[in-house]
Design a protein that fits this description.
This protein is mainly β. The protein is 8% helix and 42% strand. A hairpin with a 5-residue loop joins strand 8 and strand 9. It is globular, with a radius of gyration of 22 Å.
């Protein structure tokens, strides 16, 4: 940023207009600098923490509860946090590991992946009864499932065809169909809030890293959204459809949460200071939760999401 011209300590009356102009430039420059430093500062206050690890947070549709994976009892299981009371409840009791919970739109079920049946497969648990149902049972590695906004489909990643691809199936586990079949890895799918598109991470861009891509819900019109050095993955579409949070990092740069503004094409870093993963939007789009190791263990942190300054592409 260009340093503004110094303001005379005792300006003559004929220089008063110029002084005001220079002062205004200085104040605007200082404001922009403070705004940039504010965005680059470490962000996120702990929401769930302790001596163990809490990971992969997911807001309930009502915003009253948070699902997450925790190894509080020795191995990872799905837990629920009641936001109002702070009460934590264990939802699954797998002797192995349950990971990456995601709520159904009505808040009655949570889909997740688990190695409780040997390999990594997809399961769904009824929140009230805690009954668990297995949806996939293949020798492939299936994971990162998400209910569609209409609740009739589940998107997930699978290496059933060799490399990781994005698949969809009915909510009962039937009619599995690959949406991507590229030789590169396509991972961590996320539905747009209207259910018309799916964001995912892909290594197909001709680099050694991952970028964020989007496609129609039927697999057509696959397009790159971001392209940067290192890796960008685990996209999370905002409830208003205008932004995508994601994880970026590589090499000496620790993974952190970033935000991509779709109308303007801007990307901006939201967190700094730890290894931060798995962003998830609150239903009102005002905040994001994510996992972070800045305390020494993985905790669930929460940050407010300010509005990005308006700027057109180009």
């Amino acid at each position: 940023m260009t340093q503004p011209e110094p303001i005379p300590s005792e300006p003559a009356p004929r220089l008063w207009g110029k002084t005001i102009t220079v002062a205004a430039i200085f104040l605007v420059g200082a404001a922009l600098l403070l705004w940039r430093l504010n965005w680059l500062a470490p962000r996120g206050a702990p929401l769930v923490g302790g001596p163990k690890n809490e990971r992969s947070p997911a807001w309930s549709p009502s915003g009253s509860r948070l699902a997450y994976a925790s190894d509080e009892t020795g191995n990872y299981n799905i837990w629920l946090l009641d936001i109002a009371s702070g009460r934590r409840t264990r939802l699954t009791t797998s002797p192995s590991g349950d990971f990456n919970p995601y709520w159904s739109p009505d808040g009655k079920k949570i889909v997740f992946h688990s190695d409780r049946a040997g390999g990594s497969n997809i399961f769904v648990v009824d929140v009230d009864s805690t009954v668990v149902t297995q949806l996939t049972s293949s020798k492939s590695t299936d994971g990162f499932p998400q209910f569609s906004p209409t609740a009739n489909k589940i998107a997930f990643q699978s290496d059933a065809l060799g490399s990781n691809d994005i698949w969809v199936m009915d909510a009962n586990g039937q009619n599995k169909l690959p949406l991507t079949t590229d030789k590169a890895d396509d991972i961590t799918p996320c539905w747009s809030p209207d259910g018309k598109r799916i964001a995912f991470a892909s290594s197909r861009a001709g680099t050694t890293g991952l970028d964020i891509w989007t496609m129609n819900a039927d697999g057509s019109n696959q397009q790159p959204l971001t392209h940067a050095e290192g890796n960008e993955w685990k996209p999370a579409w905002s409830p208003d459809g205008g932004r995508i949070a994601y994880v970026a990092g590589g090499g000496e740069d620790k993974p952190s949460v970033w935000l991509f503004d779709i109308p303007t094409g801007q990307s901006i870093r939201l967190t700094l200071g730890g290894s931060d993963y798995d962003p998830a939007w609150a239903p009102d789009a005002a905040s994001i939760v994510f996992e972070s190791d800045r305390s020494g263990n993985f905790d669930i942190c929460k940050l407010a999401v300010p509005t990005l300054p308006t700027r057109s592409k180009g």
